[in-house]
Amino acid sequence: MEMEKGKVVVEKVRGKSTVIRSFSKYPLKFIIPRKVGSSITDAVWIYSLTYGGGIVSGDSISVEFTIGDGCTAVLTTQSSTKVYKSLGSKCSEQVLEARIGSGALFVVIPDPVTCFSTARYSQKQVFRVVSDSSLIIVDWFTSGHHESGEKWDFELYRSSNCIFAEGNQPVFLDTVLLEQSSPVDIAESMHEYQVIAMVLIYGPKLKHVQDQVQENVKRLMSQQLQIPSTRLGCCAKTNSDNCLVRPAFIASCSAFGPKGMGVVVRVASTTTEAVYRFLHHQLAGMEPLLGVSPYS
């Protein structure tokens, strides 16, 4: 049976981006504050949260966003999305579909997903754009409640992000899949990294942000290669019988889409705090468009 979908519609009302329709179904709830940041900035912020502070086995969340022509909308969360243990083979799932109109900007900047012991979680995000739509997606997850020993202890994590242009033409297709049934368990394959993140920046409104992010990542990784890396334990042996050393924070950046209209940044880190700092710094150029700097 098809799940009942939530719905959010943003349109221009008296020249301002405004939520004209908002519907959500348990366990999802939307909060739309009257004002976030500068009142002269045309941007509407939407906070998403789940009742009880998390998602449990069998929860299915589906929501559609429509961002009208010329509008700016931000979707964020109040805290990390916690996914609790699975019963049998049940999988918690979230599906987000969004249409971004002409000259519109949609910014998806949640806190990370955190999967607890034995959890099974799947999310899919589909974005449909036109030639002058702009889009930012931050998609990231942490190893779990590792202070209690739950380090990469979940059963399944799957996250798919897809961008389609007019005529259903694929612009970006990406899936991250971690599953305990593979030959190498998740904790072993992740070594000492606790956070994996992807930042996607697309569209004509964001060219200045793309240029700055590419330059920042290039400079950051150049510095990493010059500074001795943090020792993260004996992950492998070299011919000289020394331990392999991995940097505590790594990032890569590449262009995608027609005429390089998009940039995707991938990050791995040993701490969540380092990723928050990275996101805040890289997206600081969004403040004039959003009224407040993301992750501030």
UniProtKB/TrEMBL annotation:
This protein's name: Urease accessory protein D isoform X1
Tell me yes or no: is Chaperone among this UniProt entry's keywords. Answer: yes
Instruction: Tell me a Gene Ontology molecular-function term this record carries.
Output: nickel cation binding
**Keyword Chaperone: yes or no?**
yes
Identify the keywords attached in UniProt to this record, alphabetized: Chaperone
Listed GO biological process terms = urea metabolic process
To which protein family does this belong? Belongs to the UreD family.
The species this protein belongs to is Gossypium hirsutum (Upland cotton)
